[in-house]
Amino acid sequence: EPEVTQTPSHQVTQMGQEVILRCVPISNHLYFYWYRQILGQKVEFLVSFYNNEISEKSEIFDDQFSVERPDGSNFTLKIRSTKLEDSAMYFCASGGLAGYEQFFGPGTRLTVL
Amino acid sequence: AQSVTQPDIHITVSEGASLELRCNYSYGATPYLFWYVQSPGQGLQLLLKYFSGDTLVQGIKGFEAEFKRSQSSFNLRKPSVHWSDAAEYFCAVAVNQAGTALIFGKGTTLSVSS
Prior knowledge:
- Chain A is mostly beta strands.
- Chain A has no helices and eleven strands.
- Chain A starts with a strand and ends with a strand.
- The model of chain A has no long low-confidence stretch (mean pLDDT 93).
- By secondary structure, chain B is mainly beta.
- Chain B is built from no helices and twelve strands.
- In chain B, β5 and β6 form a beta hairpin.
- The N and C termini of chain B lie far apart (41 Å).
């Protein structure tokens, strides 16, 4: 069964460093998303991406964040200058033609020191 | 703005007993409704969804949920809980527009006692 994959599973970085989180969505999906979950808190929407552009973003997704689909298979989230409060689990999700049902990857745990 | 409330932070159920996890949403129209499960250290797995039609929906692992418009609720049920059901359960809503964000509740942690 096709699934969303994410790399790395765990990333440790120093405050102020740039990080890129990678995702491979399900191959025929058209909608792509990033969410985050700070430890002990609920899952929060960051951004959605469709037709090579951002379709929706939350207040969390400020200028420090960017997304890209550099090729036909990868979907990346870049945090330009990480802060301590960026420490969280980051989930990638993708959705098919209808776009309502979202399938999540296993997540990348980002630790900012 | 849409919101989701899961009133129970933590529930403990005996193995073999029935389960009901509560979810209430706030939205002007009928949203699309979802239940996800997250096992420790794992991602989010979709249990079931409601878009329209029959208000009682069946999902994977023996779960079902009932949409009640009058109560703005979408409660998750299982007639007989197994120890492997111990996990965190999230209710989520989306407006009926393709590609839109899911809004999650804070989750309910289910513990199963033997």
